[in-house]
Amino acid sequence: MRPFLERISSRKFLTALAVQAGAVAAIFWPQYASAFNEAAVRIAALVVMLLAAFGYARIEAAIDEEK
Fold first, then answer.
1. Domain boundaries, the chain
2. CA–CA separation, 31 vs 5, rounded Å?
């Protein structure tokens, strides 16, 4: 198992963190006047957040299995 500081400085983690930040921004600061569009953007942002988190966890699990 890799040390915590090594994990949070990896490109995988930083990419997942950037995706999460973008999704949070889309949830809280939508740019659309229509309620339907706003709801669609929020749902898409939540899906992206979940996929980024699951993807990062899966990659880290695969790396840990190799060691």
1. 4-66
2. 36
